[in-house]
Amino acid sequence: VRVTFTPIQRREMGVTGTIVVLQDVTEQEQLEQARREFVANVSHELRTPLTTIKSYLEALEGGALEEPQLAQRFVGVTRNETERMIRLVTDLLHLSRLDSKEAMLAKEWITVSDMLEEVADRFAFQLLQRNTEIFIVVEQELPTILIDRDKIDQVLDNLVSNAIKYTGDSGRIELGARKNAQNELEIFVQDNGIGIPQKDLSRIFERFYRVDKARSRNMGGTGLGLSIAQEIIRAHGGDILLESEYNIGTRVTFTIPYLAGESEEI
Ligand code: ADP
């Protein structure tokens, strides 16, 4: 609580009283705390690949360049780390645009089944490599919907990519869509992967929150995918929810209301 005292003064009578203002600054404090944590996280996430790159470059300089095979491996590592930094900075830019409401939704009418089939196509090679199958289940005669296709594709890509990343080989992924009783489009991505322990579930949409940092990093993750997905879905007036059982699988569902009318700005 912040307390401020202001004396009440009258010309002839001097100070006749005091105004005391008690201000609840909990929310401000929390925001400030979240901001500090975010900056610390970003710095750490950028520092880690930079440190790796630096040490590999030093090794190359210190003699590894003379050994072609070793040199090739080291160059490979620095390139991977650079790519991860680019992904991270791109994700941060997306988040900051969504935060500042700069992002306008460019909505168009979309046929959901086509959209889902194209997502599966984009991952065809990766799915084949992991010997994982994807099934698309779309309710018949699902109406078309007015959405920002690029942004919803970004959400879907992230969810399917997570489903693949956190499911071992020979997995099974289901991608479904239906219209629910609240006149919303409901899309889900379900996997039979490693799942998320109960204790982590409540924090999973937080920026940089990861169940297993090392695993996520190895998989090329930035820890921002779900936060970005949540911002995009909320910008569409919808909601996103994640259900998971450790060692059984995960299901992420998002909804987007069917609106009458044309494209709008947020
Ligand atoms: P990341 O880039 O680390 O994948 P996300 O924001 O997309 O970041 O996800 C946050 C964390 O949630 C992941 O690090 C992972 O621990 C967990 N997670 C997300 N999706 C799944 C899933 N389908 N199965 C198991 N864990 C998941």
UniProtKB/TrEMBL annotation:
Residues 41-260 form the Histidine kinase domain. It comes from the Bacteria. Residues 1-37 form the PAC domain. It is found in: Cell membrane. This is histidine kinase. It comes from Paenibacillus psychroresistens. The lineage of its organism: Bacteria, Bacillati, Bacillota, Bacilli, Bacillales. The chain holds residues 353 to 618 of 618 of the full protein.
